[in-house]
Structure formats: C-alpha cells, structure tokens
Design a protein that fits this description.
Layout: E1 20-22, E2 25-27, E3 34-38, E4 45-50, H1 54-70, H2 78-94, H3 96-107, H4 111-132, E5 140-146, E6 149-154, E7 162-166, H5 172-186, E8 189-193, H6 200-212, E9 219-221, H7 226-234, E10 241-245, H8 248-259, E11 264-268, E12 275-277, H9 283-295, E13 308-310, H10 315-327, H11 356-365
Parallel strand pairs: 7-8, 7-10, 8-9, 10-11, 12-13
Antiparallel strand pairs: 1-2, 3-4, 5-6
Helix pairs in contact: 1-7, 2-4, 2-5, 2-6, 3-4, 3-6, 4-5, 9-10, 10-11
C-alpha cells in the first residue's frame, strides 16, 4: 500500500483525455458535441468534454454486454479479478494527487480534504471488494426425501450482467468507487454516466482501471447531461441494474424509467437529518462536530446536518458557538492548505455555510415556543 499523506504543494491539474471511454477506446460523442467543465472558484473553463447522448449509451451498453457475454471478465476466476482490483486500488493511491487536483478544479472541494480523505477512501473501497471477488458463493442444503429418492438443493450466485451507474458531483471519485468496485468484483460489466459538473476524475479512473488490467468493455464512461445520457442509461433495455446517487426528484424519474423494463434499482438519495442538542450536551465537545456537519464541503454533502434543533435553555450558547465557527472560516482558493471554505460547486449556488447572517437568522427563531417551521 502506498503512503498518500497530503503533499505540501498541491499537484497541478492534468486534464485526462476528455473523450468517452467505450469498449476500451477513447472516442468522441457520436454527435460531436461537447460541454464545458467550469472551475467554480475562478469560473474559468477547465476542459471541453465529449457530450455523450443516447447513441453513445447504446454503444457503451453494447460494449459492456459483449464483454460480459464473452466471459473475459464475468467468467474470470474470482482470485484474478481480485488481483486486478487490488492493482486498481494501488494505482488510485499512486495517482491521489492528480485525482484530487481534478476534483478541486472541477467542483471546488478542498484539495487537502480530497487527497487525505476521498481518494484514500476510493482506494480502500476497491481493495475491500477485491477481497470479496473470490468469496462469492452459494449454499447447498439437504431436502426431504421423496420416497426412496434423496434430494438436495443449492443456490449459485452469478454476476447479474450490465450495471448502469449515475454518479454525483460532490464526491465524484469515492461515490463512483462505491458503485463500481462491488459490481466489478462480482463479475459484472459497468457503464457510468458521471455528473456533468465532475466528469474528469471518473475519466481518469477509467484509464487507471484499464492500466490495472480490467478488460476492454468491462468498464465504460459516458459523460453527458442527465436528460440526455442519464435518461438513456436508466431506461436502456440492455442493462440489468441501475444505481444512482442524487436528488429524490431525479431518483423518482430513474425508478419510473427503470421500472418500465423491470430493472433492478438502487437509489442513494441522501438524508440530511437534523442535529438534536439537549440541555445536558457537552457543547465544548459537540459544537465543532455540529459545525462540521453543516459547513463541511460548503454543506454539499448528502448527509449534511442542515438543521440544528436546540433546547431553548442552551439556544444562545449554541448559536453563538456556531456563529463563531462561521466567522473564523477562511474563504479562498480550495488548493490553498489554509482555506477552510471554498466556493460552491455551481456559480449560482451560495456559500451559505460561510454566511454568518444564516446563523443570525437561526438565532432570531431558535427554539421559540411557537410551532416549528
């Protein structure tokens, strides 16, 4: 395993090939169209990326199906699949600075957090599922005899087929790893439609998986817009399962599209549960974590706190403590190690997590006897 402690100097942004990855090749979109990836901190164009559409999804699913049916990956010995996925984990660790720089440039996450957190977690996911690749087994059981006939039954676990994955922009590499690694470990082929706001790290991940030895067609990436490429993937008759992380509204649409074909569906739509603070809470110990739950990654986390419900007897202390955390935030370049808050992913989003007026508003209505909003 490689030591990937955050380097003193962030890695430069090295943009990978911005073409689609289909069947082991980098190819342009059938339409020839592209879309711009915008750095939220500078509002400059990071890259022009091939804009995949329905025809490209068709090609990617076909490539995935051909590879699956050929057995090049689906019937490979589990131990060998595990060895390749372990190699992929090593490569992710080795390229952690590069992947982190791409995430920071595209969607503004702090470089220090990404290189020390998200990318190691992505590598760990691949390494974890690599260990499962040769341990996927069924069961055998003795059944009641029928007359003189002895009977037994057994189950056999086999790879499902082609898995479509639609990944979010806020943690592009690690969330993609959560979807890709188990599917590949099981012997499935995968087609990923990354978020248009954060496609570059996933394209780089495709190159690393190919370098690790994943066969052509077993892993494909089609960047594009949700209503075009995303809808085409979710509704495609050639996939056996779709997995999505994102908003409840889009999750409903994907369920509807996949349901027409009776495809298996996994949705991760976020929780955003409130943080409850009771009178006996140790505020010195808890306030830093409550603040992190609301402010981390500019609040752009599916598990972000978003609401703090406080007993009225300690409301003033909690609000003042959280306002102080907001005042002390260092807003700036996400590549700078001293920055604690950067700009939100899209230019139209507000960095509410660094806005002390947000907490002033909270204070004005905190724990009033009136009915809660």
């Amino acid at each position: 395993m490689t030591d990937i402690a955050a380097p003193v100097t962030p890695a430069p942004v090295v943009v990978p090939d911005t073409l689609l990855r289909i069947g082991g090749r980098a190819v342009p979109a059938r339409s020839g169209d592209k879309f711009s990836s915008i750095n939220p901190a500078t509002e400059e164009v990071v890259a022009e990326i091939a804009r995949g559409g329905a025809d490209d999804i068709d090609a990617a699913v076909d490539a995935a199906r051909d590879t699956f049916d050929s057995g090049a990956w689906s019937r490979m010995a589990g131990a060998e699949r595990g060895r390749i996925l372990s190699r992929a984990a090593d490569l992710i660790e080795q390229h952690a600075p590069e992947l982190s720089a791409l995430e920071t440039a595209e969607m503004g996450k702090l470089y220090a957090d990404t290189v020390a957190g998200d990318i190691p977690a992505a590598a760990a996911s691949f390494r974890h599922y690599a260990g499962w690749a040769d341990k996927i087994a069924g069961e055998a059981m003795i059944l009641p005899d029928v007359g003189p006939q002895h009977r037994f039954g057994f189950t056999l676990r086999q790879p499902l087929g082609v898995v479509g994955a639609i990944t979010p922009w806020n943690n592009p590499t690690v969330v993609a790893a959560w979807k890709i690694a188990p599917a590949l470990a099981a012997g499935c082929s995968v087609v990923v439609k990354p978020a248009e706001d954060a496609s570059l790290a996933v394209l780089k991940l495709a190159d690393l998986l190919a370098e690790a030895g994943v066969p052509d067609g077993a892993f494909n990436v089609v960047p594009g817009l949700g209503p075009e490429a995303g809808s085409a993937l979710a509704s495609h008759q050639g996939i056996d399962k779709i997995t999505f992380t994102g908003s409840p509204a889009v999750g409903k649409t994907i369920t509807s599209l996949a349901g027409e074909k009776f495809r298996k569906v996994t949705l991760e739509l976020g929780g955003k549960a409130p943080q409850l603070i009771f009178p006996d809470a140790d505020l010195e110990a808890s306030l830093p974590w409550i603040a992190m739950g609301n402010f981390y990654h500019q609040g752009q986390v599916c598990a972000a706190g978003t609401r703090v419900i406080v007993h009225e007897s300690i409301a003033d202390q909690v609000v003042e403590g959280l306002v102080e955390f907001a005042r002390n935030a260092v807003i700036g370049d996400p590549f700078d190690a001293g920055t604690t808050q950067a700009r939100s992913s899209t230019a139209s989003s507000s960095t509410a997590s660094s806005d002390t007026s947000r907490w002033a508003a909270v204070r004005a209505r905190s724990c009033s006897p009136a009915a809660p909003e």
